[in-house]
């Protein structure tokens, strides 16, 4: 594939939020890639600034004109000289067209569709509603592989039941930028409601569903304390509180329960629950190799979020996925909260065991439809 030029632009998604879109001209045709921006970020992420990235792409358009890319390794070598995720993804799309291979197969050869874990309720930095829960996401997922389409159906059914309950009880609510339901309820009230719905749907479908939370604790960790609506608590109290919630509501997935440098709290939490709970690092790891190694040396987690936009590099994303597999971590693919229609992320999710994605917004439904397409492509180990 021969690179000809790249044209960056700013677009808006269905929530009216800006995202970066890049059109790349090549000898195999016109390629388009878009990357999301996000709202809450780890201190260890690539410092993404929209205007600066547009100027970088404009410079690369001239610098890379006529450059030939023969395989994935050429793209990874290119990234050592210049880190630019949308350009790298566009070139991967070009190689996919040139070789008549889907992107996931170009990158992973053989893969299995990931388990879908979906946000039902939201809170934290994803909403401006006063009195909303401090935790950023309240999630649901089946505890076993039930097949992709049934997985999506069950997650969506829980979401619909939650909406129906709030309307029936005349509880005021809105939705956040990812489609998550946001109501003036405490963390415990949301978990109580979700537990009842999950129990009902599990019984009716004869499929065990589990509850998870993304605490995103760094977002409300201020001056050495975790700031809740009615109190401010220290590190030990946060550890006790998250332990209590995990046992009380039989949580099977807990993401970022402590701030992004609280390795000791993560270690204590993991040692207490061992493999009974998926303890996932997002802000803690930030899809960076160095942070993943540090987390592993502290025995802090048994799962990690994979977000290409955090490191802004395809090569580092793939390297983190490979190292996480070596550490025997569960890999959970995810996006930034300000989403785009880009479907290539579904192909990248094929390299992970879980995929954290909403089942309601237009942009995310495009990715789920892409996953269903992938099921029919040769080389997929079906559910």
Show unreliable segments.
Answer: none
Share of helix among residues? 40-55%
Per CATH, what is the topology of the largest domain? TIM Barrel
Strand order of the largest sheet: 4-5-8-12-13-14-15-16
Taken in chain order, the helices and strands follow as: EEEHHHHEEHEEHEEEEHEHEHEHHEHEH
Rg of Cα set:
21 Å
Q: In what range is the share of β-strand residues?
A: 15-25%
Mean pLDDT: 93
Number of domains: 2
Q: How does this model look, in words?
A:
With 383 residues, the chain is an alpha/beta fold. The chain folds into two domains: 105 residues, Enolase-like, N-terminal domain (Enolase-like, domain 1, 2-Layer Sandwich), CATH 3.30.390.10; 268 residues, Alpha-Beta Barrel (TIM Barrel). The protein is 41% helix and 20% strand. The chain has 13 helices and 16 strands. α2 packs antiparallel against α3. The model has no long low-confidence stretch (mean pLDDT 93).
Give structural attributes.
about 375 residues, Enolase-like, domain 1, 16 strands, alpha/beta, 2 domains
Q: What is shown here, in short?
A:
By secondary structure, the chain is an alpha/beta fold.
Secondary structure elements and their pairing?
Blueprint: E1 3-12, E2 18-26, E3 29-35, H1 50-63, H2 72-81, H3 85-99, H4 103-108, E4 115-122, E5 137-142, H5 148-168, E6 173-175, E7 181-183, H6 187-205, E8 209-214, E9 221-222, E10 225-227, E11 232-233, H7 235-248, E12 253-255, H8 263-273, E13 278-281, H9 289-297, E14 303-306, H10 308-311, H11 314-326, E15 330-333, H12 344-349, E16 354-356, H13 362-375
Parallel strand pairs: 4-16, 8-12, 12-13, 13-14, 14-15, 15-16
Antiparallel strand pairs: 1-2, 2-3, 4-5, 5-8, 6-7, 9-10, 10-11
Helix pairs in contact: 2-3, 5-6
């Amino acid at each position: 594939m021969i690179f000809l030029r790249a044209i960056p632009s700013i677009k808006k998604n269905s929530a009216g939020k800006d995202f970066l879109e890049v059109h790349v001209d090549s000898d195999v045709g016109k390629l388009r890639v878009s990357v999301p921006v996000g709202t809450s970020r780890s201190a260890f992420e690539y410092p993404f600034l929209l205007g600066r990235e547009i100027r970088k792409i404009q410079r690369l358009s001239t610098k890379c004109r006529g450059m030939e890319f023969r395989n994935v390794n050429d793209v990874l070598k290119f990234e050592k000289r210049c880190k630019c995720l949308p350009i790298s993804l566009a070139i991967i799309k070009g190689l996919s067209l040139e070789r008549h291979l889907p992107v996931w197969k170009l990158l992973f050869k053989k893969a299995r569709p990931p388990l879908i874990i979906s946000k039902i309720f939201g809170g934290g930095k994803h909403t401006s509603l006063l009195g909303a829960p401090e935790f950023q996401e309240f999630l649901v997922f089946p505890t076993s592989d039930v097949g992709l389409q049934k997985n999506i159906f069950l997650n969506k059914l829980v979401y619909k039941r939650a909406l129906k309950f709030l309307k029936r009880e005349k509880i005021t609510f809105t939705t956040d930028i990812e489609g998550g339901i946001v109501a003036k309820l405490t963390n415990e009230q949301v978990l109580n409601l979700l537990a009842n719905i999950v129990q009902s749907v599990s019984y009716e479908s004869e499929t065990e569903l589990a509850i998870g939370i993304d605490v995103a604790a760094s977002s409300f960790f201020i001056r050495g304390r975790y700031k809740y609506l009615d109190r401010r608590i220290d590190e030990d109290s946060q550890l006790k509180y998250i332990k209590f919630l995990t046992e009380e509501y039989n949580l099977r997935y807990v993401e970022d329960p402590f701030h992004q440098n609280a390795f000791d709290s993560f270690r204590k939490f993991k040692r207490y629950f061992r493999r009974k709970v998926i303890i996932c690092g997002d802000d803690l790891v930030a899809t960076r190799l160095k942070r993943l190694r540090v987390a592993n040396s502290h025995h802090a987690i048994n799962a990690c979020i994979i977000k290409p936009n955090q490191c802004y590099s395809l090569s580092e994303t793939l390297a983190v996925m490979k190292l996480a597999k070596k550490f025997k971590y569960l890999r959970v693919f995810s996006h930034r909260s300000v989403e785009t229609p880009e479907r290539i992320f579904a192909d990248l999710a094929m390299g992970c065991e879980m995929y954290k994605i909403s089942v309601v917004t237009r942009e995310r439904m495009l990715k789920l439809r892409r996953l269903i397409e992938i099921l029919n492509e040769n080389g997929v180990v079906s559910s």
